[in-house]
Amino acid sequence: MMQFFLIAVVFLLFYFAPFDSPIVSQSILNGFYLLQEYAREHVLLCLVPAFFIAGTITVMLKKESVLRLLGPNARKMISYPVAAISGGILAVCSCTILPLFGGIYKKGAGIGPATTFLFSGPAINIAAIFLTARVLGWDLGLARLISTITAAILTGLVMEILFQEKGEGGFQVSEKDLDSSKGIIFFILQLGFLIINGVTVDNLVKYFIMIVLGISILLMAILGFEKDKTKQWIFETWDFAKKILPYLFIGVFFAGVLTKLLPQQFVTALLGKNNFLSSLTASVIGMFMYFATLTEVPIVQALMNLGMAKGPTLSLLMAGNSLSLPSMIVITKLLGRKKAFTYFALVVIFSTVFGMVYGMLK
């Protein structure tokens, strides 16, 4: 039934769309222009390395070692920072955060570290942070990273204080779990390649360092690991790419269309000021919208071009990745209404506050 409905909607869209209207044709053309810009400037040296890093994290690093640090026996000064940064460490995206959250919550992680992980996980995905910095500016990328980690920790602490739920059981980390030094070196080399690409230095120096790092990564991939592990790394990289890139390209195209179709006065009136109301509006919009991984960047870019201020931009990035209407339904089933709605409120509150503060500083 759903497939029939989608086919009918697409048919009616193409049947009645006024393609001969100048605004419609310009909007569609603008969508392709934005796609071309992303293909030229952000895919080969930003997204592709990020996908390889995501594959490295999945295959070469030990997820269990991280997840086991979220148990009730871990000290808060360990469990909360680990929970807050593990979205980047584990390469969690919006499609994988909910089952991971459900797993660590049911296996003994307290409500605090679990909700900290749930908040920050999708928002500090390595690819998302670097794409944000590359497209929207390094100041906003860094603000997104720091604000999300801080807000996630505060959210978890408030949830633990309110519900007094520290989890049960306990996770122990064995020395064997931590023995992944080669994987860590491999990860650092790739991360260095991605960072150097985004740094403003002399092009000759930049490309020389990137070539050296690229050769080192290639040699380590061929000689440093077993063939099966290297194949698995390539497979996981491809898996990330094929799951994310189609949605990203669709999101970029519609963001380009949106730039022409959406009235600038509407965006400016709702989101054009660095104040509490604009940041709150952006957080609430983000709470209900669904952003496939990385699609938030072109959409936010389009809204910024229409006049969205810096503060609401950060609020939208924080709340938009951490929540969506589908994820809210699942979270409510996992936590129950009282805990879930408290969590939703905290995400909106902290996203609003951090956005407002960032807007004032800018």
Helices and strands: which structural class? mainly alpha
- Evaluate the radius of gyration: 21 Å
Helical run tally: 18
Biggest beta sheet summary: none
Helix content: over 70%
Q: Calculate the mean pLDDT score and round it.
A: 83
What spatial form do the alpha-carbon principal axes imply?
A: globular
Distance between the termini: 49 Å
Strand segment tally: 0
Low-pLDDT runs: 169-179
Strand content: under 5%
Order of helices and strands: HHHHHHHHHHHHHHHHHH
Overview features:
0% strand; mainly alpha; 362 residues; single chain; 18 helices; globular
What does this structure look like?
By secondary structure, the protein is mainly α. The chain is 80% helix and 0% strand. The longest helix has 39 residues, at 22-60. It is globular, with a radius of gyration of 21 Å. The model is unreliable at 169-179 (pLDDT under 50).
Summarize the structure.
This protein is an all-alpha fold. It has helices spanning 2-16, 22-60, 63-67, 76-89, 97-106, 111-123, 126-136, 138-163, 175-178, 181-198, 203-223, 227-261, 264-271, 276-288, 296-305, 310-322, 325-335, 337-361. The termini are far apart.
Topology:
Blueprint: H1 2-16, H2 22-60, H3 63-67, H4 76-89, H5 97-106, H6 111-123, H7 126-136, H8 138-163, H9 175-178, H10 181-198, H11 203-223, H12 227-261, H13 264-271, H14 276-288, H15 296-305, H16 310-322, H17 325-335, H18 337-361
Helix pairs in contact: 2-7, 2-10, 2-12, 4-6, 4-8, 5-6, 6-8, 6-16, 7-8, 8-16, 8-18, 10-11, 12-15, 14-16, 14-18, 15-16, 16-18, 17-18
